[in-house]
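The aim of this short unit is practical: by the end, you should be able to scan a pair of folded records and say something sensible about each. We start with the first protein, listed as its amino acid sequence and then its structure tokens.
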Amino acid sequence: DGVTSQQPLLAGDQATMQSSLNQERDVITPHHPKRKFTLFSEMKACLSSPVLVTLSLGWAAMIGVVASLGTFGGAFVLALQLYDDERDAAYWFGIVAALAGVIGTPLGGKLADKVLKRYGVGSGGGSTTGGSSSRG
């Protein structure tokens, strides 16, 4: 018939399902009754992680550079007197920046894979370029 009927849950089945859901939740996010979560305790936890702080500062710097290049890149090329027209300067600056991103991203991933392979870091299963690090 293609239509399936659902049977109602019995009280015991519902209690069993709720118990297993509670156990899964406790495994994923264990309950710490003595720890009080406040804004300052969470900020302290985040700021005490050197990796998180470094990544955050790195992303902020990258976003600042990209925003600056997007805003002033065409004007900078025009100031170098490479082009006479502002529209042409902005157009070619955008083309070069896009090509640099398209070519530089996979090359940077390959370079990172080679560095990680050279120093024996990582599991070898993943890659920044979507391939396997073991291909070399």
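Turning to the second protein, read its sequence before its tokens, just as you did above.
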Amino acid sequence: YHGLVTEVGKKKKKKLNLVFAMLAEGIKHPHRDAHDVDTMVQGCFPLREMISSFKALKEGGAELALVKGSSGPVVTPTTASEVDSLRLSIGLLLENIKELWAPTLDLVRVAEAVLSPPAASYATHPPLSERD
């Protein structure tokens, strides 16, 4: 439902995100609650992509080393531009989802668990394309 828009209203059609429209117009939840859920759903997939980008950057050889006296990881100059653009993207996303960042991150974790195939099942049951 991420990014889907619908039109509601009898005379004057207004475009609403599908999640918000289902909750506010269909189920009649309070608009604040519907807006919060819609914000989390809209922020879930971009946040998931950014986390994947960070993991790929880290696995690609980016050294995030702790420096004496620093409170967190320090990035090497070779990956500084990539990390800066990722940091900017994450900052803009967090500006949009505001205090809902923690439940949005939980939603990302659930999406990862649901959408990622379990690795253990491949060991006992190979994919159909690899079966005889």
